[in-house]
Specification:
Mean pLDDT: 91
Helix content: 10-25%
Structural class: alpha+beta
Order of helices and strands: EEEEEH
Oligomer: single chain
Radius of gyration: 12 Å
Number of strands: 5
Shape: globular
Length: 69
Amino acid sequence: MPEPGTFAVDGRDGRVGRVMGRVGPYLQLRPPGGGAEWDCPPEAVRPAPPGLVLRARVTEINREGRLPS
């Protein structure tokens, strides 16, 4: 099971998200750069490969670097 703070792939639809924790029987995943968390059954979660992790981290860094207008 992926640790909170790591990236994982929701095997049901291929979305990548940061593992935020557990709520009941589900893992909570959040899209890179923010947004609404979604529930994913633990059996559908798989570790994100290095290329997807890199892409997700770049998305987060870009989002953090944006200044409000």
